[in-house]
Design goal:
This protein is α+β, with helices and mostly antiparallel strands. 37% of the residues lie in helices and 27% in strands. Helix 2 crosses helix 6. It binds one RNA strand of 78 nucleotides through strand 11, strand 14, helix 9, helix 10 and helix 11.
RNA sequence: CGGGGCGUAGCGCAGUCUGGUUAGCGCACCUGCCUUGGGAGCAGGGGGUCGGAGGUUCAAAUCCUCUCGCCCCGACCA
């Protein structure tokens, strides 16, 4: 291989970087901590946007846009919030060549500026709920950065809703988490565990935080989406009250929720292999590549005419690339499209033309299979559907294989240290026990799964009563 | 901020210790021929303020001084 990807078992993090760079998903920018998202990478983000945006709108949400710059005084209004975010904020101090009277934060998230506006817009219960989402960039200054996973500037969507009652906000936060889970599994083919964050891990300024957690191929956890019930914290900070049906003034109830370009990193670390990216069909903007093979002009003409017919047939339903470049040999093209993760490759040479068929290769399996030209659209459609399904199943098997049930702390440490993955253990809900585990092992509580079994037990640290198991793992 | 390393073609590097024609190699790129079922071959070609500034010297990528930038390792985070 001329273009090398470091194999996963040699150096997982170099493998990741190699895949991102070689598949042309992103590149390093002149500004440290920032990245350029290249067309191949942005195409993935667009697919994420399109599908999530549709799902948000189907549940009554609308899009809007709030400013990038936030007055410092706004950030300071919610104590926990400013404390949580201040260390990672970039601040504008000069504008128009002059020192600003009030410094402006480049948004690390938009709760404060949005709630300053909600104050203007909300008077009565009739104004509620407000279900606004925005697609935007945010900035959180980072020292140790990794493409897609942790960059100072990243793209995301942030939903900010306002409600008349606690219960409504709670339902909203859970509804969104459900959407995230559905999207992650059905589109990205990433199995996730939905649950509630512990107090220590929740969002700065939230009442409850919920998350979906995925397991990467190195068995580390990655938070793939979060949703917060913010209670009345921001309403109180920004003095946002509404008059209820009884004529009484109440503070508004809030949620916020988001997923980011980090999902692209999750997609890579869930499915890609030593040959490069593997895209689930539903996320691939281009699902099929045809590589024609020929010797001499005569064959070239024949093969290309045939390949074009196939392209046209498949083009009714899918986006097809016909790679007829003359300067590269087929082997080179195979490798290149594999690198970019195109789900299905069709190889068409003189032998296939003679047999009225072609060779089909599924990117995740890499097995060659001869298929007839008759019914190629149905064959490929079926293959793509199976591929989508099996990618999720395989990832789920992997996740289950590395999910351990552990009741003894010695074994816990050993498992986290040697095996990695998710460890399900009892925990008494005391933050001190949680902190001790983090100090000892670097593992954190990923979440308290919604679907956990009711099972009385004893905290793995202190032995106190526990209502059920929580998920521990080392995380990105 | 503390410890280790590195700046030479788009990328990866050699050359620096021991100063000396025109600064070299691999990949990539361009042209042509030839090839095409798993990353071909041959020939020719383009591309460099040797990170920057100052100094020593007949002569500096090489020696000296200063400076800038980057990467790796230790406290927080979608």
């Amino acid at each position: 291989m001329a273009e090398k990807i470091t194999p996963r078992n040699v150096d997982y993090s170099r493998w990741y970087t190699d895949v991102v760079l070689q598949a042309k998903l992103a590149d390093y920018s002149p500004v440290k901590g920032a990245m350029v998202i290249r067309p191949n990478g942005y195409a993935i983000w667009e697919m994420i946007q399109q599908n999530l945006d549709r799902m948000f709108k189907e549940t009554g949400h609308v899009n809007a846009y709030f400013p990038l710059l936030i007055p410092e005084s706004f950030m300071r209004k919610e104590a926990e919030h400013v404390e949580g975010f201040s260390p990672e904020c970039a601040i504008v101090t000069i504008g128009g060549g002059q020192e600003l009277e009030e410094r402006l934060y480049i948004r690390p998230t938009s709760e404060t500026i949005i709630w300053s506006m909600y104050k203007k817009w909300i008077m009565s219960y009739r104004d509620l709920p407000i279900l606004i989402n925005q697609w935007a960039n945010v900035m959180r200054w980072e020292l140790r950065t990794r493409l897609f996973l942790r960059t100072s500037e990243f793209l995301w969507q942030e939903g900010h809703t306002a409600h008349a009652a606690y219960q409504e906000a709670e339902e909203e936060a859970l509804k969104i988490l459900k959407i995230y889970k559905t999207f992650a599994e059905e589109y990205l083919a990433i199995p996730v565990i939905a649950g509630k964050k512990s107090e220590a891990e929740k969002f700065a300024g939230a009442l409850h935080t919920y998350s979906i957690e995925a397991m990467m191929q190195d068995r580390k956890a990655l938070q793939a989406g979060t949703s917060h019930n913010l209670g009345q914290n921001f309403a109180k900070a920004f003095d946002v009250k509404f008059q209820d049906k009884d004529g009484k003034l109440q503070y508004v109830w809030a949620t916020s929720w988001g997923v980011s370009t980090r999902l692209v990193g999750a997609l890579i670390m869930t499915h890609a292999d030593d040959n490069g990216l593997v895209l689930p069909p539903k996320i691939a903007q281009r699902q099929i590549v045809i590589v024609p093979i020929w010797r001499g002009e005569e064959e070239k003409k024949q093969v290309l005419a045939y390949a074009n017919e196939v392209k046209e047939t498949l083009g009714k339903e899918f986006t097809v690339i016909l790679d007829d470049r003359d300067q590269y040999k087929p082997g080179y093209k195979f490798a290149e499209w594999e690198l970019q993760g195109i789900p299905v490759r069709l190889e068409i040479g003189p032998k296939d033309v003679a047999k009225n068929g072609m060779v089909m290769v599924r990117r995740d399996l890499m097995k060659k299979e001869f298929i007839p030209k008759n019914g190629v659209l149905e064959t490929v459609r079926g293959t793509l559907e199976r591929m989508q399904k099996e990618m999720l199943e395989n990832a789920r098997k992997f996740q289950q294989e590395y999910t351990h049930i552990v009741d003894d702390y010695k074994e816990f440490k050993k498992t986290i240290e040697e095996e990695g993955g998710f460890v399900k253990s009892h925990w008494c809900a005391n933050p001190e026990c949680e902190a001790k585990i983090k100090d000892d092992t670097k593992a954190t509580i990923r979440n308290i799964p919604f679907d956990r079994e009711e099972e009385k037990g004893k905290c793995i640290i202190c032995g106190s009563e526990s209502e059920g198991r929580v998920i521990f793992a080392k995380a990105y």
